[in-house]
Amino acid sequence: MEEQAGGPATPSLEMVPPTESKAPSRIFWVILSVILVCGLVCIAVAAALSLTQTSLKPLVQVVRLNFQNQPGSQMNQSAIINKSKDTVTYCVTSPSNQTSMVLFDRKNSYVCYKPMGQRSCYLRMMDASDRETVQMSFNLSEDRVDQVLFPSRRTQYYREFLEIVPGRPVRLEEAGEAVWALCEQAPIYWVKRKEGPPKQRLIYLCIDICFPSNICVSICFYYLPE
Questions:
Q1: What is the pLDDT of residues 122-178, one digit of tens each?
Q2: Which of 202, 57, 79 is nearest to 149 (CA)?
Q3: Confidence (pTM)
Q4: Following CA atoms 115, 121, 122, 124 in sequence, which dihedral angle do they give, to the nearest 10 degrees?
Q5: Which 3-state string (H, E, C) describes 76-141?
């Protein structure tokens, strides 16, 4: 009996490459994802802060206006500029540390006076010159904060007479928010300008105020005798 050449068959062994671990690849992608998310969050926060700083410019500014009206004396004024409410409030402080306030409310077209030591306010309608005063004050607030204004040959001095209209006080819905915030609980009365002085007038009080337009006005309130 003959044996087959080559002897018994030997099974063939195939070479299988070793399986690579996927753990390092997953960790890499997780770290990369975290870095990308943190980067996006930082960019979003920085953009939000930049937008906030840009949009939230100071809408309320205080501009100091000191007007040297006489040698050795000074009339202290400050103008509160509120761009969000479209108002300018002039505060005039006397040497006795009493303050009169004049509000220009361009939104409601009012000028309101609150004289020092008085329990009443006086209101009139705004005209074109008043709107120019408000705009000039806004422009001034864009340039610088503090200014000292000196009289010159170009300084113009006026006296303005406002007649107090007798009757009931101004109603809340007529005055508007800015006027009521200035006067608080004080009654508000209408006043009106007079082109020519009447033959008889009873001067009640006056407010001396100067504006950046190089104009100083002595605003006097009066009653007509009954």
A1: 999 999 999 998 898 888 777 555 555 555 667 788 888 888 888 888 987 888 999
A2: 79
A3: 0.68
A4: 120
A5: EEEEEEECCCCEEEEEEECCCCCEEEEEEECCCCEEEEECCCCCCEEEEECCHHHHHHHHHHHHHH
Are the beta carbons of 165 and 187 closer than 8 angstroms? Answer: no
Q: Write the single-letter amino acid at 134.
A: V
* Strand, coil or helix: 70: strand
> Does the CA dihedral 31-37-40-45 come out positive or negative?
negative
Side-chain-side CA neighbours of 145 within 13 Å: the count stands at: 4
So what's the pLDDT on residue 59?
Answer: 60
Contact partners, residue 207, CB within 8 Å, separation at least 6: 92, 100, 102, 113, 115, 218, 219
**Residue 188 exposed, middle or buried by CB count within 10 Å (0-12, 13-18, 19+):** buried
Question: What is the rounded average pLDDT of the residues 172-195?
Answer: 88
Residue type, 199: K
Contact status, residue 117 vs residue 98, Cβ threshold 8 Å:
yes
Token pair listed for 72: 């050795």
Tokens of 126: 């705004």
Q: How many other CB atoms are found less than 10 A from the CB of residue 111?
A: 22
- Convert the pLDDT of each residue in 30-66 to its tens digit: 676 767 766 666 676 666 555 554 444 556 666 666 6
